User: Fold this.
Amino acid sequence: MHDIKAIRDDAAAFVRGLQRRGMGDAQQLADNLLKKDKALRDLLVRLQCEQARRNDASKLIGQAKAKKDEAGAAALMAEVAGLKESIQQGEAEQRELEKTLRDALAVIPNIPAADVPDGADESANAPVVSRAFGKPPGINAPKQHFEIGEALGQMDFERAAKVSGARFVYLKNDLAKLERALGAFMLDTHTGTFDYTEMSPPVLVRDKAMFGTGQLPKFEEDLFQTVRAATLGDIADRYAEAYRSRKWGLQPNEIDDLIAQGVASDEINRRSKDLYLQQTTVDLPELISGDPERFWLIPTAEVSLTNYVADEILGEAELPLRFTAFTPCFRAEAGAAGRDTRGMIRMHQFSKVELVSITTPDQSNAEHERMTDAAQEILKKLDLTHRVVTLCTGDMGFGAQKTYDIEVWLPGQNAYREISSCSNCGGFQARRMNTRYRNAEGKVKGPVHTLNGSGLAVGRTLVAILENYQQPDGSVAIPDVLQSYMGGKTKIGL
RNA sequence: GGACAGGUGGCCGAGUGGUUGAAGGCGCACGCCUGGAAAGUGUGUAACGGUGAAAGCCGUUCGAGGGUUCGAAUCCCUCUCUGUCCGCCA
Assistant:
């Protein structure tokens, strides 16, 4: 979320930043925002004058009544009555303008940092040569991870499809254990040598949290949503009530008949919805969205860890805060139809160790490098070949001002694939979450800076181990640093 | 899920319609006292927004949103979160 005051102060910088992101209509957008901002401030000047007069007059009424000056009090009351209507109308206008402005700001992405390379897509990403590690190993006729895993009998996509559909997997035996070992190894490294605090956070969150880190309102299609089953029945009841009161759709006796027939509430809901949608613009998602029982499944623990400090004013002395967590993540992958359909690269559910840092603005760049070091340290200890790129302006995520992607070498794919993404979001998320900090003198200084990174994507790390540590006989060697987490085993084999 | 009780400043806590943005305490900051410190003592100590060169002035905010009223922390409605007990349960 951008600060409208910053846009007011330097609209040119705002426009330039968005244009670097490829937004051709940035100037028009800025003009529109500033027009609304001006309208709001003009309104406030008028409204506040009237409010001040009302407050004064009300005090005078109290004094007049105390002095038994009924005539004076009556005159003042008449004046305030006139103001009242104008004030109420002004307040409604204010709410409307503020909402419009906020809605418009909520869907604008962050401005890229100055040292981010310009470009439209990943072809313009810039290698960070100094961070590259290792060389692709020479493996004769390398297999892909799913070939290895299925041959071991420890990776089962077919049964997962039976239970959950596409983009799910069962891991068994040593591969299941390997996932747990990786999570533990990563957490131990981050807490032990990088001073991160281990967390076990919620994986179901409210709208507000998803707004805070920027997944909502713009990227709803990437997410899974849950509603308590009983709530669906309540929603059906609400539909039914709507028909009763508006006399269209199912009639009360029809609904009662359906209930008497034992028709499930969601069936009533479905039938009602069809009728309902023919007659009104209100939609089912809209009804659900108004329901307090709705949750979202986190697409990354960034959401739970970053929003931990939402609506707080932190002391500068307690910063930086560093959190890490090993959680499942859930992504709809709606825009990825046909991509990475085989194997574990792109799943609806995967596990990941996440890193989140909360810092002051002057520390965030250094923290970004440090976080990337922490993520890379895992790959180095696993002796996995990888490289680092700075994402170009066109490839960065919505909330980021600068992002490093870490790409691990996958022999089976003969390619580098993303295994971590470390972003500095500056104050962008902090403004959405309303998280600020206070300096040593106790003065509130403004939004904190937030950073997040994968340290690492555990599923993809498991893939990388299978492909890089595969042996000619079909077994997989276990990296040295993981052996103690695997009961001393040195390989996974038949 | 049921029944109660609550949500007030960095923290605790008073406050049931009128000069209360909010008593009192703790904490914190500065001063006095002291050889130095503790204790004691005095003063100060919210956020956001508008306006202004600034000092300042004004507005909003007592969980959130509506409402009643000339005037709401205080009354009404809806929602939300927390606590306690009961029920259920990993």
About this structure: Residues 41, 44-45, 47-49, 51-52, 54-55, 57-63, 65-66, 73, 76-81, 83-84, 292, 313, 315, 436, 438, 441-442, 444 of chain A lie near RNA strand B (CB under 10 Å from a C1').
